[in-house]
Amino acid sequence: MIRARAVLVFVRATLxxxxxxxxxxxxxxxxxxxxxxxxxxxxxxxxARVRLATPVPGFFxxxxxxxxxxxxxxxxxxxxxxxxxxxxxxxxxxxxxxVRPVSSGWRHGPVIAAxxxxxxxxxxxxxxxxxxxxxxxxxxxxxEVVPADAxxxxxxxxxxxxxxxxxxxxxxxxAVMRAGLKPGHAARRALDPDDVAGICAAYAAPAKVRxxxxxxxxxxxxxxxxxxRALGLAAALGALGAGIAGxxxxxxxxxxxxxxxGSAPADA
Length: 268
Ligand SMILES: [Zn+2]
Hints:
Blueprint: H1 2-22, E1 42-43, E2 48-52, H2 64-75, E3 86-88, E4 97-102, E5 114-120, E6 126-135, E7 139-141, E8 150-152, H3 153-164, H4 193-204, H5 227-259
Parallel strand pairs: 1-6, 2-3, 2-4, 4-6, 7-8
Antiparallel strand pairs: 5-6
């Protein structure tokens, strides 16, 4: 009986270590956007059609070139599973994502230059409609060197399209999905490995609500135990507890054996 208990403790402890090792996530900075009920946001019909509603003031092409380049950058990501992709909507075709330069009545305050509104199914997280608003009263740029009072249009659209695809912000300073771009900031027109990891993770997993994932970012600077890590820790603690309980029982059994050699412990 005592030997059987010892074997059981060993198996549980080993399992705990395996769980803890195999589920330790890489320390990426991205966050997934979530629906009202916690499902990951993702575009269900791909490629997603995008339309620039009106020209962005100050561009000879109305900002279309910057938009197409930003769409192409996200579309060029290669994941093992499903890949996200964007195409320009033809005239008369319905666009899932609309880019809307706003010339008057900007409702997001003086600090925010662009805003993305993602409408999704609250159960599945399937993205139904996206409106990307740009404050058209600001100075936008597509120059290689961004003027001090301007924002790089392609950089901002690259970031907002990331939101349109279902990503939230990243804690990585080099990520496109990092929040808080200021006027005069150098253009950031290529994706960071963190952005790529974020989009590939979003489109690889099943589109249902998962309770085993942290809804906050797993930033290496924050020692936040993710759910799988916590499970591994719980298993290891459980095994330790079982081991201590078994040792106590064996000690009690030995004490009983010493006082009454004829009796056996009831719970061993
Ligand atoms: Zn953002």
